[in-house]
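Onboarding guide, step 5: your first structure request.
Type a short instruction followed by the sequence, for example:

Predict the 3D structure of this protein.
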Amino acid sequence: MSFVSTPRGLSRWDLLAMLLVLGLLVFFAEASRGLTQSLSGLEVAPVSLEPANLPWYAARTTLRMLAAMLLSLLFTFTYATWAARSRRAELVLVPLLDILQSVPILGFISVTVVFFMALAPGRVLGAEFAAVFAIFTSQAWNMAFSFYQSLRTVPAELTEASRSFHLSAWMRFWRLEVPFAMPALVWNMMMSMSGGWFFVVASEAITVGHTTVMLPGIGSYIALAVARRDLAAVAWAIGTMLVVILVYDQLFFRPLVAWADRFRFEQETGVAPPRSWVLTVLRRSALAARLSTPLTAVGRWSYRVRARRVSARAHDGPRLGRWPEGIWAATVVLLAALALWQIARFVVEGVSPSEVATAVGLGMITLVRVTVLIALTSLIWVPIGVSVGMDPRLARIAQPVAQFMAAFPANLLFPIAVSAIVAFHLHPDIWLSPLMILGTQWYILFNVIAGASAFPTDLREASTVFRLRSWQWWRQVILPGIFPYYVTGALTASGGSWNASIVAEVASWGDTKLKAAGLGAYIADATERGDFPRVVLGVAVMSVFVVLINRLLWRPLYRFAERHFRLD
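The system replies with structure tokens like these:
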């Protein structure tokens, strides 16, 4: 009897799976070391620029980002599903998501840090909660928009098939909607993970009153290196980021991409599927199959429980009348009015009407920057994204490269930008603008790649049969096919650019500081001075701009995509 077929033996796939699982357990144990220590311990052992500390810093930062990713997935599956299924909820949740996307990460930290620090008084764990939540705010909105868009464009014949099989809403969610949305969601998860690096510097430096808590991590390492103008330390940080991105690409995202390929809306075969050695190990390991059996059993049990509950509700008789809808509408209006009144009272007490006009004028300047940059990056990345998404071999090569480029913190380029602007006597209002889009242009690329990779092969072959070439192929085939995905990417890139303006319109390197006129610089200056009425005014004006743009431009484009570009 061979070793592999021995009932009590372990195959090589089982051994590899055990090594992977044990390695992950060791990583989590090492990265979580010191979470329960007191805050004074960070003062005894502050962040150091010694390269030997970078592996541990990288583990701590990666643990925070993975925890934020899990929270983002939970938020996406609940929030986006509620918005997509309920018309009443959609009227509130989608505009609220627009506002949340426009609120700067500094605003979230300043409002929530006291709450999270109070959860574990005097302990590092409270600051870790605040850091994870800050990273969550840089990941969740993009994923929620992607999942919402996918749920709204599920092909009608698939929905009808699920009804003909009498699937409950719970079963339809896991058997139809999540699989249909998974290819795009995975690419947006990669973008969100990479986008988290853009704000990791701010999230790992927690300010409480006049005290700043520097959590050990790559973000705090980068902040210290920039403050000390240590180019060697910056280079070490970039190298460490590259290694970390390559590792979690192999262990996490590449298996997800290969697994999600099975859910492509595809009628024809012949396209080489993406592969992952980790997924191959898990699929061929009998030990992994046995360990996953309880989870599968729980899932099937939940289907039966939900089905019985739906059947019971169907026999409970008619639902209540329309008065709950009236209560819902009245509650929403009351809460919105209360929030507006509180904001207006807080702002009016600290600023004059002329200050409001100034903030609105600066918002118009930032609006011009965002519009021009979104248009330019769309012209660049849409053709590249289509080429990558339609060629699986090219996608396997481009995926880690795109992740690294998206994860590269724009503030590491500030020294080059500041030095070049000063050396060549350039105008900051123009040449600081590209820094706004460096971290957000990738939303367009990743969503276009997801749309092109999900484009059915039979439609590609039909366009070949009809000999559609050049502009006609772009206009009649691929642009309509990727349009819903592009709208999601452009929407999140636009909102992210407004958020990034706070760090991009004010750039510094050592003692040299440049500022461009705009709403982002206005909020950054008010935050630095501790002028909270002007901070609230700037954030409120930015939120109004983002919501109006989404209502007048992106939301109609969403509706247009739902009506005309569904794969029905």
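Each response can be followed by summary notes, for example: The chain has 24 helices and four strands.
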